[in-house]
Structures are given as structure tokens and as C-alpha cells.
User: Fold Beta-1,4-galactosyltransferase from Seriola lalandi dorsalis.
Amino acid sequence: MTRLMLGRTLERICKGVMLLCLLHFLIMMILYFDVYSQRFDLFSRFNNGRNGSRNNGSGAAGSGHHFYYYNLSRPNATLASYLATGEQLVPVCSQRPIRLGRLLIEFSSQMTMERVQKENPNVTEGGRYTPHDCRPRWKVAIIIPFRHREHHLKYWLHYLHPILRRQKIDYGIYIINQLGEDTFNRAKLLNVGYTEALKEAEYDCFIFSDVDLIPMDDRNLYHCYDQPRHFAIAMDKFGFRLPYAGYFGGVSGLSKKQFLKINGFPNEYWGWGGEDDDIYNRITLSGMKVSRPDIRIGRYRMIKHERDKHNEANPQRFNKIQNTKNTMKKDGISFLTYRLVQVKKHPLYTNISVEIGKPPPRPVKG
Assistant:
């Protein structure tokens, strides 16, 4: 009886071990083919949905997996013929590049364009760069409204070119220079930058940045997101806090689709202030929400300066902000007018000089 019970027990143990071995084998095969399919794209028909959920989206929580692609646009191209050529498979750039973190930003050292150019030998004429070791997810135009800020521009280029390269972004830098000494119009210059950048390349993402703002953490990724993005949420001049919930100033980003959905930016904000709040209103009125990085990552230092001449505070800004709903369809990119004077490609950026007109006469009080 004892021997019979012992035999049954051993039989059950053996069956259990065999089932565990079979289960282990199945798991190993699944993992093997999963890795194999990611590397050689053999099972892309079945994995597109799953891999897309891993690697697409806002970029705030990407998994870091790499995809590989091969060119099947050639005549009679097949996977087998492509592999036979020995060409290297190129991965898609990770959404969360490694070796990013907090930066030490200072403006005391002397800065020259010659120095910045030596620091960035891989940047091509016009301020263009594309990663050589991976395929970027976004093609980004970085647009800066500008007038008489050459000193600030040197520091901006010194810090931002290395940051953008580390972030594995395909980008171009466009300085939109308002000619003349009439009242400055930041938002209209940004509309000009959007229009002129698209004449050079098929950009699908646009970052709009003031020239005096430098990010203090390169984990603040300069690409577009599912919703319009506000990058500069914690400036030193505001005590590294968001000044108010609807603030959208300093550095922001919109995809081409998002930009057109709000009819671009307003053209009628002459002088300092108001245009960022109008843009925020346009976003919310269009059914979108503003996305922001973590406040510890969205920190910025501002290069100190006095208020620019001919950029005095706009006394009409508060009234205009309250009427965004009525003005956004007729005041924006669809009604933009300007005169292009010169496009000049420098080693580190493209300078676009324009005349954008004068502000209308202010109504007489009383």
C-alpha cells in the first residue's frame, strides 16, 4: 500500500515537472519571436497595433524600444532582397533618449558665434540638423521672433544646439527678424516663421521660443505632443512657478494640425503682452488642452534685459483677450500679410528679415 501511494506521488510530481517545462518552453518561444519580430520587422502586420501603443503618443512616458525599417520603395524590393544587400537597419529614435538631465546654465562667460560654431560641427548651413544613427520621429521648425537681440542669440544657440542634438531631433532654427523701428509684434512674427519654414521643408512640428529663455533640463523634449505643449512653465523670474493657470508664454509647441485648427496666432497684438493669453483661449475654444512637463523639468533661466524700445505694453490687450472667440476666425494665419525682404542662411540658423507693417491708430479717448 505504501509503495502504491509513493508511486502515485512520484507520477504526479513527474507530470507537474513536465507541465512546468512545457510552460517554460512556450514562454521562451513567445519572447524569442517577440524580440525577433521587433528586430527584423517580420511580424509587423501583427505587431503594428501593439508596438504603436508602446512607442507612440505624447512622449512623456515612452518605453525606449527601437523600431527598424527598410526601404521597400525600390522596384521589386522585398525583405529578402533588402537583407541580401547588407544595408544597415536604422532604428527609430527613442522617445526618451538616455543621458539627459539637469543643466548648469550661466551667462557670465564670453560668447562668440565663432565659438558656438566650433562647438557644433554637425549642424549644417541654416541651422539644420538630423540624427545620423536613428530615424527621428518629428521634423521640427524652431521659430524665434527677433529684433536687436544678437547678444542673447549667441547664448541661445550655445545651449540649444547641443540640447536638441542630444534629444535626437531633426530640426531647423529660424530667426524671424522684424525690420524697422515700429511697434514690435511677436505673434505676427511667429505666423511668418511658420509660413516661411514650410517653404523649406515639410515640418510637422513647430516650437515657438523667445530668444532669452534657456531650458535648465534637457529632459524637456522639444517635439510635439498629442495636445499643444507649453514648455517654459517654471521661469526663474517667476520663482520657478507657473504664474497663472492660463499662462502660455515663453516657449510653446504645436503640431501643424493643431496650429491650423486655431487659425495660427493673432496678428493684431502690437506691443508687449496679451498674445499668449489669446493663443491659450484659441486652444481651449478649439476643444484642446494645454499639456505641460513636470514642473521640475520645465525650469528655465531668462537672460536679464531691459524692456525693448518700441515694445511697450499694449493698452488694448485686456479687451482683445476677452474677444478671442469673435476674432480668432478672422485674425490669424489665414489673413497674414507681410513683405519678405531677405532670407540668409548662417552656419547656425536661418535669418528671415521681414516687414510686417504698422499698428492701426489707437482710438481717441472720449
